[in-house]
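RETRY 2/3 - previous attempt timed out on the joint model. Re-submitting the same 350-residue input unchanged.
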Amino acid sequence: MNQQPLIYDYNYSDFERLFEEWDEPAYRARQVWQGIYTNLWNQPEQFTSLPRTLRDKLAGYFDFSGLTTQTILRSNDGETLKTLFRLRDGQPIETVRMRYMRRRTLCISTQAGCAMGCTFCATGQMGFRRHLSSGEIVEQVMFFARLLAEQGEKVTNIVVMGMGEPFHNYDSTLAAIDRLNHPEGFNLGSRRFTISTVGLIPMIRRFAQEKRQVNLAVSLHAADDELRASMLPVNRKYPINELMAALVEYVEITHRRVTFEWALIRDINDTPEQARKLAALLQPLKKSGAALAHVNLIPLNPTRGFSGQAATLDRARAFKAILEEKGIPCTVRIRRGIDIQAGCGQLAGS
Ligand code: SAH
Ligand code: SF4
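RETRY 2/3 succeeded.
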């Protein structure tokens, strides 16, 4: 494995420190930062604002890329693009770009594999390989930012819903978001990010205390402990009542809406009974008439290691109707890019 530092792992202040060590003027940090995050440069020779000697020094010191593109797949409608990358040590990760109306959304990975073992998830079926560094998370974004720039477009939204459990790799995930937030660089606002978690309660508490503007999504998938634990082993450690209590606290502290994800599996969790239980669970998140919960229903993306089937659209609509009757806003999501296995982990796991 390449032992040179990955350039995307450096914060602004790290560059300031480095250039001080190298006896370079302080403004070099801004030049390099803007080169990377505003001009989207990824080759040392592109940094023409720097003297050649410094460019060479940077080229010798840093690794300018930690990602090798292995496969790029485009959906039939051309709106979804999925990439399988190899990290410097050969571990596979996936990143997806979705085009929808004016949005250009990236779905990024935070780990190679995942330790949470959700039965229906291709990444869970792979097991845990390792955490990604913050720079490896950031570089996925910069890769697609460059591709989009070629068409005069920009990344508008980022969902941390690719491979891995972001709150199991909390520090690197939030450091990556901070780097992409930086006003003198990439400058993508916190509200443009959504972190999806399987429900690691201590990290939800910590996240609440940080009072960020980043959106939070929680993968619920079942409304009672028995069913949820059979699909999401983490539920044995963090049962539903404790999870909901932490989320009520989160909403009280941040006044921000929580999105709940629910992969609809035929005859398992698409029943009217589950819908009613879910509606009851979410009632405490309705405050002064405003619902601080939103449910995303996504028909299951079938995976090799799981025998469950996608729910029918009729069952999805009936489920949605029950929630809405109880005042819980709900969206049925269409699976995008199913022809390219855009469910994360499906390429890397195969
Ligand atoms: N680890 C985080 C984020 C990555 S998974 C989490 O679990 O929330 C992103 C979303 O995809 C989660 O809601 C997850 O439950 C869902 N998902 C995983 N496998 C799926 C599948 N086969 N079909 C539909 N959704 C799936
Ligand atoms: Fe991990 Fe999320 Fe997949 Fe569960 S659903 S195994 S937490 S990536």
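The pocket of iron/sulfur cluster (ligand 2) is lined by residues 114, 116-118, 121, 123-124, 164-165, 198, 219 (CB under 6 Å). Closing ticket.
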